[in-house]
Design a protein that fits this description.
mainly alpha; 244 residues; single chain; 2 domains; Arc Repressor Mutant, subunit A; flat; Tetracycline Repressor, domain 2
Length: 244
Amino acid sequence: MVGRADQPIWLRPESLPAGRPAERSRAEVTSAAIALADRDGLEAVTMRRVAASLGTGPASLYRYVAARDELVDLMVDAVAAEYDLAPPGDDWLADLVEFARQTRTIMRRHPWLAPLVTGQPGIGPNGLDLVEHVLAVLADHPAAVGVKLQTFAMLNGIVALFVQAELAGARQRGGRSTEQWQQAQAAYLRHVAAQGRHPRLAEAIARGSTGATAEEDPFDLIVSRTMAGILGPATPAPSADAGR
């Protein structure tokens, strides 16, 4: 997404009239757009409304971005700076789960972000830092580099879909808490199971088998199992000729 420009915005300096001091900066324009999206949704981010929030005219914003799409790219990259990532440890799966947890927190903080991640946002400097982090986490893993890059994309996609489901669920629950909603759903399932039309479901409910312990967040379980499935074991299996 480069608007009218030939170069990505990350390589293009801000365009200012000669001899005039900068009224704003790209960072200020981006921050204003993020605040607007956090409050009113991404559809509220128009050049006119962003300019109004800054006390200026829409035409002035085109000194900093060529089009709204570029502004959205800047927004995505700006929130990518909100991670607080520790250096990779000796457990690649735990590090990926921690990365996913932080991604989830950031997407909850900025509800407009998750749908963009499942699309094709332009990746900027902060986004590239995240790619570098995941590659560092997987540096000693025997998977091919292409698979590791796919892992980054799929990890973000999984978290984005999970968060979108969470946000949609929160809207559907109205004023009820998650615990209240879960209790109501559990009561309904027990009622249905007692009617005898779903014996396998009744057995699963009776055993309390959900695939996760009460203390384990289903999110962690989904992420860890998916990543393990994509990447495979950290130690490659011996070849058929080994030991001959």
